[in-house]
Amino acid sequence: MPSLLERYASFLPITDRTPRITLGEGATPLVRSLWLERETGIDEVWLKCEGANPTGSFKDRGMVVAVAKALETGSRAVLCASTGNTAASAAAYAARAGLPCTVVLPAGYVAVGKLVQAIAFGARIVAVRGAFDAALAIVRELGESGEATLVNSINPHRIEGQKTAALEICEALGDAPDALFIPVGNAGNITAYWRGFTQAHDAGIARSKPRLYGFQAEGAAPIVRGMPVADPRTVATAIRIGAPASWAGAVRARDESGGAIEAVSDEEIMDAYREVARHDGVFCEPASAAAIAGLRKRASVRATKDTRRAVCVLTGNGLKDPDTARSLAGELLEVDATADAVRRALALA
Ligand SMILES: *Cc1c(COP(=O)(O)O)cnc(C)c1O
């Protein structure tokens, strides 16, 4: 399979001199959810499983472009702020490219799987006492010296790479879906999908464009509330963001597509997180489950009655946040190593 940069070269800001680096990003599975079709009454519901990317999140699609362009322009290092997945992805692609990588994280709010990825890939890691928004302000300032290339989604190459997921969906379905459901944090991804669907339409890959429905967590819903949130709170740490950098892009995606940006509670997120794993065998991270929570919420008030075909973007892999998954069960039963003891335990369980 050709790499993402090769497959989508004509859609991307790359030249003959752009190094064609790859870790096998993109071409992720689109899995049908019979469970959500039953529950919502929608004819087709598909899950775009971005957790299948090399570092376990969609961030790899944009990072491969950002790091390739950094190499092309002679950059000596990369730098990012991150709730975790951007750090994991930047660290991996920087390692691959032979560039040092520095990441600034919000202390105490990065899922352990993401942190250990950044460690494994050899990034220099600094945790700050503040939320993601403070970390982003810091790396913007550090990036001004020009010593390192900033690879947050304010780097336009990130959005360009991320839009390829929308192209893949149109290719797989033979058209755009009627509606796309997606979590919103810093809002780069919803901005990227809208660009991707628009370009797929212009290129004749799709006859239509979808309505985009973005979901923020109730405790971190600046776009829904219409003002920044100083102290964002949610179990979904990947969308624990109070002042999204791509706010305007998200609003444009919402308005031009005729969609909406709404809030879901942590309870709704956790319920969707548990149920999609149990019904569909798809283990995503809590932030990703916000997309499913949003679909279920809209369906419950019949706001999906004009939707025949829906896609939920499952942005990251559940393995990244083992602590949240572990919290779904209490103590495991431990018994003597005999069939009888196990039988007795199962009768209790
Ligand atoms: C980054 C991320 C998001 C949010 O994407 P934005 O582009 O910041 O809106 C959602 N889910 C996961 C798993 C992420 O890593």
Task: Explain briefly what this protein structure is.
The protein contains 15 helices and 10 strands. It has about 350 residues and is α/β, with parallel strands linked by helices. It starts with a helix and ends with a helix.
Structure description:
- With 349 residues, the chain is α/β, with parallel strands linked by helices.
- Helix content is 43%, strand content 14%.
- It contains 15 helices and ten strands.
- It has helices spanning 4-7, 34-40, 59-72, 85-97, 112-120, 132-143, 156-162, 164-173, 188-202, 222-225, 247-257, 266-280, 286-300, 322-326, 339-348, and strands spanning 30-32, 44-49, 78-81, 101-106, 124-128, 149-150, 179-183, 211-217, 260-264, 309-314.
- A six-stranded mixed sheet has the order 1-2-10-7-8-9, sandwiched between helices.
- Strand 3 (78-81), helix 4 (85-97) and strand 4 (101-106) form a beta-alpha-beta unit.
- Helix 3 (59-72) packs across helix 7 (156-162), helix 4 (85-97) runs parallel beside helix 5 and helix 8 packs across helix 9 (188-202).
- It is globular and about 65 Å long.
- The site of pyridoxal-5'-phosphate has 18 residues, from helix 9 and helix 13.
Strand order of the largest sheet: 1-2-10-7-8-9
| Hetero compounds | pyridoxal-5'-phosphate
Strand content: 5-15%
By DSSP (H or I, 4+ residues per run), the number of helices equals: 15
The pLDDT mean sits at 97
Structural class: alpha/beta
Biggest sheet overview: 6 strands, mixed
Shape: globular
